[in-house]
Amino acid sequence: MTGLGLELPIGTERLLLRPHRMDDLDDLARFHGDPDVVRHVPWPVRDRAATEETLRVKLTQTELEAPGQWLVLAVEHRARGRVIGEVLLKWASDRQGEVGFAFGRDHQGQGYAAEAATAMLRLGFGELGFHRICAVVIEGNDASARLLGRLGFRQEGRMVDGVHFKGEWATQLVFAMLEDEWRSRAGR
User: Fold this and answer.
1) C-alpha radius of gyration, the chain, whole number
2) Hey, which end of the chain has fewer CB within 10 Å, N or C?
3) Which residues of 74-98 are buried (b: 16+ CB within 10 A; e: fewer)?
4) What φ, ψ does residue 168 adopt, rounded to 5°?
């Protein structure tokens, strides 16, 4: 693969997955600055200025042209017109991807992460032709681990003290799904 064509935005029943815009700053600052939200994600608690700096980078992460790149999309609630989270898809290597997500505390536990992640799996396996998609979770992030299990991921590994995370060693849980597993589960 030399470049992966993407048709954005991606619509779901309740959500619009789209490239970030500068006017997303207020919504992003709300959850990027929440210690409960960022406890298990690889970024620190951010103030408005740090969130704006990060947003400027996200504005460029709208395509997958080479392995190693991340597609980072804002998750907008259609009815409210506000960004409630973010979803990511990495072109990890030849026909392999990695998915990730983060949602504001007020929007957790309502199926939004599952809806957005399912759309990214559909993009990765369906449109982009990935063979395998993984997700890496810090042990203790039980909600994300349960969600991945509901989506059909299986835990493939547990790397004890596998990463220095937020100033201390942390155990990583590696989950994955293969394209044929996705197709059989999705009835495709």
Assistant:
1) 16
2) C
3) bbbbeeeebbbbbbbbbbbeebbbb
4) -150, 165
Q: Which amino acid is at 69?
A: Q
pLDDT digit string (tens) for 72-106?
A: 999 999 999 999 999 999 999 999 999 999 999 99
- H/E stretch holding 149: helix 142-151
In angstroms, the CA 57 to CA 53 distance is: 7
Q: Counting every residue, how long is the chain? A: 188
End-to-end CA distance of the chain: 23
Nearest to 22 by CA among 63, 64, 62, 51: 51
In sequence order, the 6+-apart residues with CB closer than 8 A to the CB of 115 are 12, 13, 14, 15
CB atoms under 10 Å from CB of 166, counted, come to: 15
3-state DSSP helix/strand/coil % of the chain, to nearest 5: 35, 35, 30
What lies within 8 Å, CB to CB, of 156 at 6+ separation is: 134, 174, 175, 176
Q: What integer is the mean pLDDT of 118-140? A: 96
